[in-house]
Amino acid sequence: MPQEPTTYDLTKSGFESEKPLWSIDGKSMIWKTDRHALHGYGYSAIRQLDVYEIVFTQQALDGFNLPEAEYQILKEREEQQKKREQKREERGRKRGGNSQTR
């Protein structure tokens, strides 16, 4: 029998939160909330929402807090590291599966 998915209240604010979306890399989530926005009173249709984001890893938080120029440098370094690792793996496959680093 399939198990019911477990849900967690990430905001724990007591205010209305809606339309959560995961980031593409799965390291953060955004949602709409009326926590600090203008609230409608009575039958008023006036209501404002703010967008919040929560990050789930220290790496994502560090990237979020960096100035744009430093973030671009970090991304370039990560891409270079990824290329080096791919080259190592390719050399390992060419040697017959032994992908130990020197």
Secondary structure layout plus pairing:
Layout: E1 17-22, E2 28-33, E3 50-55, H1 58-65, H2 68-94
Question: Which strand order does the major sheet show?
Answer: 1-2-3
Distance between the termini: 49 Å
Oligomeric state of this protein: single chain
The share of residues in extended strands comes to: 15-25%
Query: What level of helicity do the residues show?
Result: 25-40%
Main sheet overview: 3 strands, antiparallel
| Domain module tally | 2
List unreliable stretches of 5+ residues.
Answer: none
Overall strand count: 3
Polypeptide structure, described:
With 102 residues, the chain is an alpha+beta fold. The chain has 2 domains: 13-56, no CATH class; 66-93. It has 2 helices and 3 strands. Strands 1-2-3 form a 3-stranded antiparallel beta sheet. The longest helix is centred in the last third of the chain and has 27 residues, at 68-94. The model has no long low-confidence stretch (mean pLDDT 80).
